[in-house]
Amino acid sequence: MVLNSMPRSFVKLVLSAAVAATLAASPVQARDATRGDDSVAIIAALLGLVTLGVLLSGNDDEPSYPYGHVSRPYTPTYPDRPHRPHRVSKYRMLPASCLREYRTQTGRKIMFSNQCLNKNFKYARDLPRSCESTLVVKNRKGVYVTRRGYMPECLSKRGYRATRRY
Question: How many other CB atoms are found less than 10 A from the CB of residue 132?
């Protein structure tokens, strides 16, 4: 129907104008003031006013939004599908076998071994230099030596992840 596609305020305006024009253009008879049958005319006028009031009332079925209507994008839900983790490109997946735990003077530290990454990770030269670190550790003979590597927390902040294969 045509009325469903038009805005409600426009439809109300047109209907109220049509009712007002009909009442104004209706022929009026000159009546004798002594006759007492004006009750029908009064009831008709009151019925017209009630109809006009209902048409102009603000009782819409549409909700009112004080700051305008905000549409939200449709997000389908798939309850049967398992959650898949965020995908990371291949050159940001570090081999978990290169994670090493070192005992330092301040405690245990975990980092990616620089030597292992150079052997097993194709893009080792592209790793951020700000994440590179040098630790002083005790080797098997009890001598303190330096080990270079990359801190996992720093690499994680820059989008690198360790594979789950060991």
Answer: 16
